[in-house]
Design goal:
Blueprint lengths: L1 H20 L10 E3 L5 E3 L7 E5 L4 E6 L4 E8 L7 E10 L4 E7 L5 E7 L4 E8 L2 E11 L2
Antiparallel strand pairs: 1-2, 3-4, 3-10, 4-5, 5-6, 6-7, 7-8, 8-9, 9-10
């Protein structure tokens, strides 16, 4: 009888250890970001706010009009193309402090950017007519 109890004990312990070492399924991540002050902000809270995207040679005001429309306006610098436009955008939360946003302007210029609300850094990639560029900058909420 002691052998049976020992065998049962070993089976139960093996099962418990096995379950403890198994990775638990990840829960679905909420679409929230943390702003510079550390407060949780729902992505919808960015709608209606205007952010300054400041680069070395250019400064833009970017306003998310809805969960799919962005308005941008060049406010500093000389750019040979459009200086203001409203476009359709898509976004993805990357983690609690970063979002990825992209849109295609009427000229065909594709904009893809990572906004880091912890460091307030901006990492923009652009593409047009087979050319690519990288444009780092800073973001700041202005209204």
């Amino acid at each position: 009888m002691n052998k049976n109890l020992l065998t049962l004990f070993l089976i139960v312990m093996t099962s418990l250890v096995s379950n403890a070492c198994t990775e638990k399924p990840k829960t679905e991540k909420k679409q929230e970001i943390t702003n510079k002050t550390g407060n949780m902000v729902n992505i919808r809270d960015l709608i209606g706010s205007t952010y300054e995207w400041k680069y070395k040679e250019y400064t833009y005001h970017i306003t998310l009009l809805s969960d799919s429309m962005v308005h941008w306006k060049l406010i500093k610098g000389d750019y040979p193309g459009a200086t203001e436009e409203t476009d359709t955008y898509v976004y993805s939360p990357l983690d609690q402090t970063k979002i990825f946003i992209s849109w295609i302007e009427k000229s065909g210029l594709g904009i893809s950017a990572v906004l880091d609300f912890e460091t307030m850094n901006l990492y923009t990639h652009g593409s047009q007519n087979g050319s690519l560029y990288v444009n780092p900058g800073k973001i700041k909420k202005i209204k």
